[in-house]
Amino acid sequence: MSLPTRAIAQDALHDAPAGNAEGAAAASPGAADRNVEVIPNTRSLGFLLQDVARLMRVSFGQAVNDAGLELTTGEARALVHAVAAAGARQTEIAERMGVEPMTLCGYVDRLESRGLVERQPHPADKRAKKIVPTETAGEAIDTIMPLTRKVIADAMEGLPDSDIQAFRRVLQHMHDHLADGRRNG
Question: Residue limits of the HTH marR-type domain (predicted)?
């Protein structure tokens, strides 16, 4: 019985570490057939993007809780998206948030019960409902938006403005490229 060879998984934006044949084997087709155990590369761009997003959601959730808004992180995010896309269908907001429509439905139910949004008939589709923020939503948004800016500022603390602007351009490029690919593919 042979033990699997350990290898660090590589993403498409990084070569295998110099002199690391195991890393190259893991990145090559058929690595799994050669009994190679693939260890996630926690320094890859993909991993870092996902983990930073997770950490920012955790920080945002704590900030919302500390502010006493009596909203979950998901509800606060749903409200922000509902305001940004006023009059959008639930399915569109769910897609923007990256959650399942049924998950968003629960958020909207609770936001509606608090008087922050209303479901209204969609004029072009009788089966669909559009989500419309109420005037009361403005007060919650006035609290939520400074919290989001603080979470981002805390994450960027210590970076020069030039790095922040370059990071923003890279993220915008990635966003646009991926969004265009979804629309065209």
Answer: 42-176
